[in-house]
Amino acid sequence: MEIRGLLRRHVRESNAIENIFVRKNHHLFTDHLSAAEFVVKSARDFRVLATPEDIHRILMERELPDAGKIRKVKVWVGLESKPRPEDIEKLMEQWKESLQQDLGGDYYLMPSQKERLAWHYHHWFEAIHPFVDGNGRTGRLILNNIRLLLGLPWLIVRYSKREKYYNSIRQWEAENKALFA
């Protein structure tokens, strides 16, 4: 499948996970596609990790007045409270520093280790939940940015597998509470 078709499929599935069902000419589709293309360009052309803020800004600029800006309010996912707004900047800095260190290492990783590394940083990002809205879609784009930088192919998280996906995030959070202490 050509890259644009793959990215369109990613956008449909990623939006569906968030219960967003829109036509391909709707801005929630086109902006998401633009953010996915930005991720591919960042990883393939420039070999850099796109910042979560830049991804979020492209993804949400027509949806949120503060697109790309760290949240200043408390948020919940279901009944679970996410980190306090005053802790987000520090948590994101730790996330970015750790990720840069892991991506910059000159050691060889097996494909399974690369997979685990990409999911680790995706789940960590989701646990921080730095934005008011759009964290899931941004996180799945970050997951793919990391995968591409590690030499792994683009991955589509399927709507039909969303419960398994959510359970993996919850399990990671339960196992990594110390990162938020």
Summarize the structure.
This protein has 181 residues and is mainly α. The chain is built from 7 helices and 2 strands, in the order H-H-H-E-E-H-H-H-H.
Describe the protein in words.
It is globular, with a radius of gyration of 16 Å. The protein has one domain: Fido-like domain (Fic-like fold), CATH 1.10.3290.10. It has helices at 3-17, 27-45, 52-60, 85-104, 111-128, 135-149, 162-175, and strands at residues 76-77, 80-81. The mean pLDDT is 96. Helix 2 runs parallel beside helix 6. The protein has 7 helices and 2 strands; from the N terminus they run H-H-H-E-E-H-H-H-H. The longest helix has 20 residues, at 85-104. A two-stranded antiparallel sheet has the order 1-2. With 181 residues, the chain is mostly helical.
Instruction: Look at the structure and give the mean pLDDT.
Output: 96
Give start-end ranges of low-pLDDT stretches: none
In N-to-C order, the SSE pattern is HHHEEHHHH
Structure classification: mainly alpha
List the domain count as a whole number.
1
